[in-house]
Amino acid sequence: VKSEGPKLVPFFKATCVYFVLWLPTSSPSWFSALIKCLPIFCLWVFLLAHGINFLVSHRSASRILAGLIFSAVGDAFLIWQEQGYFIHGLLMFAITHILYSSAFGMKPLDLKAGLLMGLVSSSCYAFLYSYLSGPFTYLVAVYIALIGFMGWRAVAGMQLCNDLWTWTKLSACVGAMLFIVSDLTVALNKFCFPVPYSRFIIMATYYAAQMLIALSAVETREEEDFRKRS
């Protein structure tokens, strides 16, 4: 916390700016897109602050950075979702979840966690299905499968039952769960019924999720520093 906390100060400030300004979504603009994306830009800087060599030599960290880049593009598209750019944003975040899944890796496999996430994802889609129509019937199914897979890899990596977890693996797991909460709230509010305080819930969980996932990228750096000190 002492080493990583100061690097996150710009992110917290940018997040506060977003919630203080609380620009109306009814009049999208490039300024509102900038304010919305600014916390994610700060997370780019957070990862870049660990050094280009670190990102190049550790694929998991570079994939998380790439995921943050696609997230920012997705955020910008969603500013204009009422003008027909919702699917574009959906695609950008789908790519983000693929990159995050790749960063979390496939070891350990943990089929029990996979089964649990599969049941949760299937239940969510079964609930949403009757509200969907047209291409969203298929697009939402694919998206839920991707974010469910990402959640599985984050949960599996924690290895809580084997007492092998680290704070960064826990960070990835909690971040993935918060991302699912954020996206589920988006889906409920857009396709099913108005969710009270939906925008606050969506953005608070989203920013927290992205910060925690970005934090999970620093684990390999810590292991290297520990070996050098030893």
UniProtKB/TrEMBL annotation:
Taxonomic superkingdom: Eukaryota
Name used for this protein in its record: lysoplasmalogenase
GO molecular function, one term: alkenylglycerophosphocholine hydrolase activity
Family: Belongs to the TMEM86 family.
Catalysed reactions, as listed in the record: a 1-O-(1Z-alkenyl)-sn-glycero-3-phosphoethanolamine + H2O = a 2,3-saturated aldehyde + sn-glycero-3-phosphoethanolamine; a 1-O-(1Z-alkenyl)-sn-glycero-3-phosphocholine + H2O = a 2,3-saturated aldehyde + sn-glycerol 3-phosphocholine
Gene that encodes it: Tmem86a
Subcellular location: Membrane
Transmembrane segments: 30-49, 61-80, 86-106, 113-132, 138-155, 167-188, 200-218
Assigned GO CC terms: membrane
